[in-house]
Write a structure and sequence with these properties.
The chain contains four helices and no strands. The protein is mostly helical and about 100 residues long. The protein has two domains: about 1-30, no CATH class; about 30-100. The chain is elongated and about 100 Å long.
């Protein structure tokens, strides 16, 4: 029965009986074996997540180191503009035709 077909109280009762868990279903979920299994699954998942996070942390550390290295080797835009202006000035003084 679908939601759209519910037009009476009896229809609602049928839907509830078809879809809701029984008292026995709920009690079966709370058994010690199930709780222990869930706890073990959670510990295993936590271990996998911890390992994965450790790997990601190491990768981010390497990326940061690479960025710092590149930043140290990088020539800043102002420095390039300054050098270009100086070369242009020298070319004018020497009468050299600019290559730009």
């Amino acid at each position: 029965m679908t939601k759209n077909n519910i037009t009476t109280i009896e229809g609602l009762a049928v839907l509830i009986n078809e879809t809701m868990a029984s008292k026995e279903d709920i009690q079966g979920l709370a058994s010690k074996e199930d709780v222990t299994g869930v706890k073990e699954d959670m510990k295993a998942m936590e271990g996998r997540l911890t390992t994965r996070l450790d790997h990601l942390d190491a990768r981010v550390g390497r990326i940061e180191a690479d960025v710092h290295t590149l930043r140290d080797e990088m020539v800043h835009r102002r420095d390039c503009e300054d050098v270009r202006d100086r070369v242009t000035s020298i070319e004018k003084k020497l009468g050299i035709e600019s290559g730009v």
